[in-house]
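Request: Not sure, any thoughts?
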Amino acid sequence: MSRTDAERARPERTRDDRVLRITRIVALLLLPFLIIAVILLFGFPDRTGELFAWPITPPLTAYLLASAYVGGIWVFARIVRARRWHRVVVAFPPVIVFTAALLIATLLHLDRFSQNLSFYTWFVLYITTPFVTAWLMWLQRGRDDGEPEIPDSRVPMVVRVLLILVGVASLLTGVVLFVIPTFVIPFWAWDVTPLTARVLGAVLSLPGVVSLWFLRDARWSSFRIVFQAQLVSLIAIGCSLFAGRDALHWDRPATPGFLALLGIAFVGYLALYVAMELRLRRAAASPGP
């Protein structure tokens, strides 16, 4: 039996594009932790050793991690209310990679963490979230029938290729930061430790993994929510870079490269979002067959 035949043979109830209740519950349970982390990292960057899981210096790194959590808040809030699985499924692989990377970074640098409630909360969350998220994705498997919404629009091939290239650049940068942080530290845009370099690598993996989903799906309805989250996160990153600009080393080659990558990503994502929303409105306004 071919893969297509096997998919057609599945019970119809598994192809209802429904978000399961357990998926909503987990998303709802994660939201308060993300909100608290954002408040602590943005509001008290100089007290992370006391209030957060470990002391983070300079504050710019704390701001960048908080910016990733801002995007996470947007995504998980939408999952709680989502009615169709294909609208949020693209968020799950990057979350799995991100949380797994932070778990590995934690285990590699346990001596750097504070022995406080925030660390124990951090440890419990990151030792469970990668597996719980993967389990939820497995539970939801097969529910997306692959059909476009009415109305919907396909992201053009040339746009998908360009965004994949930008995402791969972000992902490769993240991999280098995570795998060989001591090599990157002398060149990075601001001062980082092996632990914070790996944390930044995990953050940079998020848009990279999202972009790879274009290899299997071109429906705009599948990417709309996650691109909203990425734009919100990029705005937060821009504000973070402005607030922590004194930490930037302009004589290091990574500084203009990092800023250029962020600028290209923001302009590209914003242009795509606006263009696809306009196409969606035109599709909704056009008379049916």
